[in-house]
Design a protein that fits this description.
Number of helices: 15
Largest sheet: 7 strands, mixed
Number of strands: 21
Oligomer: single chain
Strand content: 15-25%
Low-confidence stretches: 1-22
Shape: globular
Length: about 525
C-alpha cells in the first residue's frame, strides 16, 4: 500500500495563522503527537500521557540509553539479608510542586498504586512480603525471595512508577486522578489547560536535579525553559507551516511527506526521535467472538505484510522501517527469530480466506476502533480497515479522535453492546524491549492489557523469565515466549518504524528517546 501524498512536490513553505503566544528564548512551543485526554499515567498506557507525566513527575530510578537503571530521586539503595531486604534512601531537597517535601510514605503509596496496574510492578509486589517507610527518607522492601530486577522495575519507562503525593497516590488505580501535583522539573498549569488546544507547564523552581549527565530518563534533568506550551494542531500542514515560520519550536511527529518538505529548510532539523524503531501491533479482543477462537486469530497471519503497514507510517523507503518485527523490539537483546516464519514466510490472502472459512467464521460483526488524529495508529488502522474485509471479515470501522479510542478500548462489552473487536497501536522501542515492560504480552485474563487474553503457557514463561539466572537464560525464554505468542496470536506484530521528529535548528541538547523536555535549550 502506497502512502497518500497531498503536498505539491515543489512546495517550499506553507501558510499558517499566527498562533504564537508567549515569546522568547525562555518559552518552548511544541506540537505533541496527540491531544492529552487523560492526565493519569497509571490509569492509561497512552504514550502522550506518559510523555506529559515525565514533564511533571520524577521516579526513584531512571533508565539510561543502555537500558540500565540509575538512581534518580533515590540517593542509592542497599541490598541485605541475602537479597531479601532492599533499602532505598531518598536524595535531599526533594519537593513537590506545592512546596511540601517528598517523603518515603509518598513513594510507598505511589509504588502500590503503580504496581496495581503495571505488569512489572505486579511481579515485584508478588515477591514482596512488606513494603514500608521506615522513616521520612527510607523505603524498605522486605522480599520473599531475592528480586535483583527491583531497580529495573522502578526505572521502567513503560507506564513508569511516578512518585505522587500520598494523598493523590491513594486514589483507586482504576479511577483517574484529577490533581497532577508532582515533583519533576516542570509543574502542570491546570488553570491554562484547554483540551484540544493548549497544555502549559512552568519551571519548578524548587527542583533539585539528580547528579550525572542526562541519558534517556536518568541523570540530571535541567529545565532551561520557564514555560512550555503544548499546542494541539490537528492539521499536519498547518503544524509544518508554524514550524517553518518560527511560531512553534518542535513538531513531534510529522508525516513522511511533510518530513521531506521540512528537511529542505535549513533552519529545521529532521531526525529520528529514538535510536531504535517503534513496534506496531494489531490487537484482537480475546473475550468475544470471533477472536475468542484461536483458529480465527490464526487466519489473519498469512495475510499480514508488515511492509504495507510500515509504508503507511514511514513512507516507501525500507531504511525507515523493519518488516521482520517479532514480539520484541528489533535490535534489543531479547529480540529473536523464533517462530517469525508465521509473519515472514510466503504471504497469501487466499490462504487466510481458507483458514477463516475452516475456522467456521459466520460473518459476525468485527468492530475496528482507531484514531484519525495521531499519525502512526491512524495509518496502520487504515491498512487494517482495507485488509480485514478482503480476508472475509464483516468489518465496521469506528474511527474517532485518539482520546475517544483511549476511553473506548477499556470496554469489555461485546460488539452489540458497544464493545470492540480489533485495535491497532504503536509503542516506544523500550516499551517492547523485554517481557517485564511489554504490556500487551500479558496473558493473565482480566488483569491483562486491553484485549484480555488468557494463555497460561505464556504467563508461566514470563514467570520463568524473572527467575532466570542470567541474560542467556532470559534470551532462551524469550524465544519460547515469541513462539507461543505467535502460535496463540496474543497479538499480531505489524512491523516497527523509525519515528521522525522535527524542530528548529536553534534548539540544542535534545535527549534522544522520546520528546524529553529537560536539557533542551535555545541557542
Amino acid at each position: 500500500m502506497k502512502r497518500r501524498t497531498f503536498l505539491a512536490a515543489g512546495a517550499v513553505t506553507l501558510a499558517a495563522p499566527r498562533i504564537g503566544r508567549a515569546q522568547g528564548s525562555r518559552v518552548l512551543r511544541m506540537v505533541p503527537q496527540a491531544n492529552l485526554t487523560s492526565i493519569d499515567p497509571i490509569w492509561t498506557t497512552a504514550i502522550v500521557t506518559r510523555n506529559h507525566a515525565y514533564v511533571i513527575y520524577d521516579t526513584l530510578f531512571g533508565l539510561d540509553s543502555g537500558l540500565q537503571p540509575r538512581p534518580q530521586m533515590a540517593a542509592g539503595h542497599r541490598v541485605e539479608e541475602n537479597g531479601r531486604r532492599v533499602t532505598i534512601t531518598l536524595r535531599e531537597g526533594l519537593r513537590f510542586h506545592d512546596g511540601t517535601p517528598v517523603l518515603a510514605r509518598d513513594c510507598v503509596a505511589s509504588i502500590r498504586r503503580w504496581a496495581a496496574r503495571n505488569g512489572f510492578g505486579q511481579v515485584l509486589m508478588a515477591a514482596t512480603d512488606e513494603l514500608s517507610d521506615d522513616n521520612d527518607t527510607t523505603i524498605v522492601f522486605r522480599l520473599k525471595e531475592p528480586f535483583p530486577l527491583l531497580p529495573n522495575a522502578l526505572a521502567s519507562v513503560s507506564q513508569p512508577a511516578f512518585i505522587m503525593p500520598e494523598r493523590i497516590a491513594r486514589t483507586d488505580p482504576f479511577k483517574q486522578i484529577t490533581d497532577a501535583t508532582g515533583s519533576g522539573p516542570f509543574r502542570w498549569k491546570a488553570d491554562e489547560f484547554n483540551s484540544g488546544s493548549l497544555m502549559v507547564y512552568e519551571r519548578h523552581a524548587g527542583y533539585v536535579p539528580a547528579p550525572g549527565a542526562p541519558s534517556l530518563t536518568a541523570g540530571g534533568k535541567i529545565a532551561h525553559f520557564d514555560r512550555i506550551e503544548w499546542q494541539i494542531i490537528g492539521d499536519g500542514a498547518t503544524a509544518a507551516a508554524a514550524l517553518q515560520n518560527g511560531e512553534i519550536d518542535w513538531y513531534e511527529q510529522p508525516p513522511p511527506e511533510l518530513q521531506q518538505l521540512l528537511a529542505r529548510n535549513r533552519d529545521i532539523v529532521v531526525e529520528g526521535l529514538d535510536r531504535l524503531t517503534n513496534p506496531a501491533i494489531l490487537r484482537m479482543n480475546h473475550l468475544h467472538p470471533p477472536f475468542d477462537d484461536v483458529a480465527v486469530r490464526r487466519a489473519v497471519l498469512p495475510a499480514i505484510l508488515q511492509s504495507d503497514f510500515m509504508a503507511a507510517v514511514a513512507g516507501d523507503d525500507p531504511a525507515n522501517y523493519n518488516d521482520r518485527c517479532g514480539i520484541f523490539t528489533p535490535g534489543t537483546p531479547m529480540a529473536t527469530e523464533m517462530g517469525l516464519e508465521a509473519l515472514t514466510g510466503p504471504r497469501s490472502l487466499d490462504k487466510a480466506k481458507s483458514l477463516l472459512k475452516a475456522a467456521g467464521y459466520n460473518g459476525a460483526k468485527v468492530r475496528l476502533i482507531g484514531p484519525t488524529d495521531i499519525l502512526a495508529p491512524s495509518a496502520i488502522t487504515q491498512v487494517a480497515a482495507d485488509l480485514l474485509p478482503r480476508i472475509g471479515f464483516n468489518v465496521e470501522a469506528a474511527l474517532s479522535d485518539w482520546g475517544t479510542v483511549i476511553q473506548r478500548r477499556v470496554s469489555r462489552e461485546p460488539v452489540d453492546k458497544g464493545g470492540w473487536s480489533v485495535l491497532l497501536t504503536t509503542f516506544s522501542s523500550f516499551d517492547n524491549a523485554d517481557p517485564a515492560a511489554l504490556q500487551p504480552l500479558r496473558a493473565n485474563g482480566a488483569n491483562a492489557w486491553f484485549g484480555w487474553p488468557t494463555i497460561p503457557k505464556l504467563e508461566a514463561l514470563r514467570t520463568a523469565w524473572f527467575a532466570a539466572p542470567d541474560e542467556a537464560a532470559r534470551k532462551a525464554i524469550c524465544a519460547d515466549m515469541q513462539r507461543v505468542a505467535l502460535d496463540e496470536v496474543v497479538y499480531v506484530p505489524v512491523g516497527s518504524y523509525r519515528s521522525m521528529t522535527s524542530y528548529r535548528r536553534n534548539l540544542t541538547g535534545r535527549v534522544v528517546g522520546f520528546p524529553i523536555l529537560w536539557n533542551i535549550r535555545k541557542a
